[in-house]
Specification:
Layout: E1 3-10, E2 15-24, E3 27-38, E4 41-52, E5 57-66, E6 69-78, E7 82-85, E8 88-89, E9 99-101, H1 107-115, E10 122-131, E11 136-146, E12 155-160, E13 165-171, E14 177-180, E15 184-186
Parallel strand pairs: 9-10
Antiparallel strand pairs: 1-2, 1-15, 2-3, 3-4, 4-5, 5-6, 6-7, 7-8, 10-11, 11-12, 12-13, 13-14, 14-15
Length: 188
């Protein structure tokens, strides 16, 4: 059964993330603690993902501390394509593939597994985009393109279609980011 730890260092900002990923009955569990210098000052977060066997989020919780102010957020998938944020239905998020957390490279893993791209294939999708430290949850248009024929694949092109941000990312055999230039690199 899968049971691993990854540590990322932020690029461009001071910060670290420590993630533990475990295979559990019916899926996976990801637990992370991170501390980063953010746009609005330093922020420390702890988050938890409960994922099904297809790497789809069932439930997500985020606890954040910034300037001694504690905030939390809970997001749950309802059925196949609906979402609730803090117990409230969010029709604007209907059809979103999964969660993308602005401060963590881990959430790229969810899209990479779910899109299951063939070599050179590109797919557009909408993510439940969680902005930290703002704790804002919005839909965001994104695209992933698989850049290599390796099995499992190791290189993808990520595009934030709403922002124009484009970056090649390199992943390991589990689909976890190794290198994400201008954002994060794995150090453990």
């Amino acid at each position: 059964m899968l049971n691993l730890t990854r540590i990322w260092r932020r690029i461009g900002l001071q910060g670290l993330e420590h993630l533990t990923l475990q295979e559990v009955e019916g899926g996976y569990r990801a637990d992370s603690v991170l501390s980063v210098e953010a746009d609005l000052g330093g922020v420390t977060c702890e988050y938890h993902f409960d994922l099904d066997e297809r790497w789809r989020t069932k439930a997500f919780t985020l606890s954040q501390n910034q300037s001694n102010e504690n905030r939390s957020l809970h997001i749950a998938r309802v059925g196949d394509d609906k979402w609730q944020v803090d117990g409230t239905d969010r029709p604007d998020l209907a059809g979103c593939l999964d969660i993308d957390l602005t401060i963590s490279p881990f959430t790229n893993t969810l899209a990479i597994h779910q899109l299951n791209l063939a070599s050179n294939e590109r797919k557009e999708m909408t993510a439940v985009y969680v902005k930290v430290p703002q704790m804002e949850v919005i839909p965001a248009s994104q695209a992933y393109q698989r850049l290599d024929p390796a099995d499992p694949p190791h290189r993808f092109l990520y595009s934030g279609l709403d922002t124009g941000f484009i970056q090649e990312i390199t992943v390991d055999e589990y689909g976890l980011v190794k290198s994400y230039p201008r954002f994060a690199e794995r150090i453990g």
